[in-house]
Predict the 3D structure of the following.
Amino acid sequence: MKLAVISPVLPPSPSGQAIVLYHLLKGIDPDSYVLLSPARIDSPGNNAGECSTRLRGTHYYLPHPPRKILYLLLLGRYFGIPLIQPYLSLRIKHFKKILKTERCTHIVACTSDAIDPWCAYVAGRELNIPFSMYVFDDYRLQWLNPVYAKHVGIVGPDIMRNATNVIVPNEFLKKRYDREFGIRTRIVRNPVDLTGYRMIPSGTAKVAGSRICILYTGAIYEAQQDALNRLVRAIGKMQNVRITLRIYSENRWSPDPAYQDIVESHDAVPLCRMPEIQGKADILFLPLAFHSDFSDDLINTSSPGKIGEYLAAGRPVLVHAPENSFVSWYFKTHSCGEVVDSESEERLIGGLSRIIHDQDYRNLIAENAKNRALLDFNLEYVRTDFMSLFNPLRGTDKRQGQ
């Protein structure tokens, strides 16, 4: 077996997609996969923060043309002029050459690239190599640019309906794709390596001394901003309690100037430091936007990569996300976090107060969180789920004692 993994981001990038690929592939023979990407592994945009080490598999750098040129090519498709077709044909030819040279037996193409999944799908079809689509976020809805959205809207359904596997990270995206395309998607959670988290001292989820630390780790963009803004406003209204919102992110975010003293910002740090940083927090904050340029469907089916980390840390998690989102559903269903699923700042204050002042409740949701990390996001289990898609004989599930 040899996988061809095609992704626009790769380790050591701090991108959630790159981190998932790092976890899934770091423990397997580097001769059993190759990496194809339009980004160089050592490019500044791909290794900001050096979030992880680099994967040892062979890497093929296949750059796209400059963004403006690619946009113009896709613009032709937007108006019904097939300017993009010669470039797609050339890309398919390059993929086929690598697939044959490396003797790949399976193709895994990841989202966040408008071009390569289609080219990889066609290359696999022409070479009779099974093709899997790895959907980290809804492939059709993640494009704010209408030109890119038009292209993906044309090629996406064909990819989904004819792929050997369509891989999704949660039940909400599975339900939508299964219904819309008449397929049976496979859930592969965004995993967490529990090794470092086992070093966190066990015991009750205490809230530290005079100043409380609420921690957020991860990217900050449209999908989180309004929830973060609402949190700092809620903190600013709380009486008789001192709270700092500590952020570790590759993105710089500035709250309203009136709340600058609440926020403490740090650069992104390597994965190996996350267990220590998250394990020392009083509360972990998991936000999703109620209002953004992204569609509600994209937000509601999102599965942030940090979920497994937060659960494994065994700290109280405050979720602030829309009521119909997977994130709110998961934490409410398993009672593994305090969920505030409305835009009410008063409810945010109430949720924070409950975590801070109710020790039994803190201990309950923290213990439930650790259990869910073990059952659902444990790297050992998730990697088995992933690899079983390409070699069914390896698809035993230790959770069921099989």
